[in-house]
C-alpha cells in the first residue's frame, strides 16, 4: 500500500524534470516568451469590410499574417499561408467564430497594393503600429518573411509564432488545445 501511495508522487517528479517524455502536449508553433502585448490601438483597419468588422478583434483569438515593410507583394509562399489559414479556419467547425484572421501591413500603401491581389473575402486587413512590428522583428535574427503567422489570445497577448510554410493540421491541434482550456473568446 505504501508503494501505491508513493508511485504517483515519484512519477510526477520524473515528468516534472523530464517534460520531453510527454510528447502529446507539444506546441507546434514557436512559443513567444514573454508574450508581446497587442492592443486594439496597435492596429488600424484598412478597407471598408475591415472597418465594419474591426470591433470583433477584441473578443476573439487572432491569427495574424505579418507582411513586413520590405515586402513588395504577397508571393507564392504568402498566398499559400493565407490559403492554409483559411482551410484551418474552416476546420475549426464549432469554434469557427472564436478565431478571426487578420493581415497586418507596415503601411497603408503596401496594404492597398497587396490587398487587391489576395482573393479571400473573410480576411481582415490592418496597418500595424511600428512599435508592434519592431517587437515582432526583434524575436528572430532573420527578417520576417511575408506570410509569417502569429497567434494572439483574446486578452491581447501574442503567444505563438508560425513560419509561412506552417502545417494547418498542427496549428489546428494547438488551437484546439488552447480553445479547450480557455473559455475566453
Indicate the topology.
Blueprint: H1 2-17, E1 30-37, E2 43-45, H2 48-53, E3 61-66, H3 76-91, E4 99-105, H4 108-115, E5 124-128, H5 130-137, E6 148-152, E7 157-162, H6 168-181
Parallel strand pairs: 3-4, 4-5
Antiparallel strand pairs: 1-7, 2-5, 3-6, 6-7
Task: List its salient traits.
single chain, 185 residues, alpha/beta, Glutaredoxin, seven-stranded mixed β-sheet, 6 helices, 22% strand, elongated
Strand-pairing-aware structural class: alpha/beta
Reading the helices and strands in chain order gives HEEHEHEHEHEEH
User: How helix-rich are the residues, as a percent range?
Assistant: 25-40%
Q: Tell me about the biggest sheet?
A: 7 strands, mixed
Radius of gyration: 19 Å
Number of strands: 7
Biggest sheet: strands side by side, in what order? Answer: 1-7-6-3-4-5-2
Number of domains: 1
Task: Give an overview in words.
The chain has 185 residues and is of the alpha/beta class. The protein has one domain: Glutaredoxin, CATH 3.40.30. Helix content is 37%, strand content 22%. The chain has helices spanning 2-17, 48-53, 76-91, 108-115, 130-137, 168-181; strands spanning 30-37, 43-45, 61-66, 99-105, 124-128, 148-152, 157-162. Helix 3 packs across helix 6. The chain is elongated, with a radius of gyration of 19 Å. The model has no long low-confidence stretch (mean pLDDT 85).
How would you sum up this structure in a few lines?
With 185 residues, the chain is α/β, with parallel strands linked by helices. It has 6 helices and 7 strands; from the N terminus they run H-E-E-H-E-H-E-H-E-H-E-E-H.
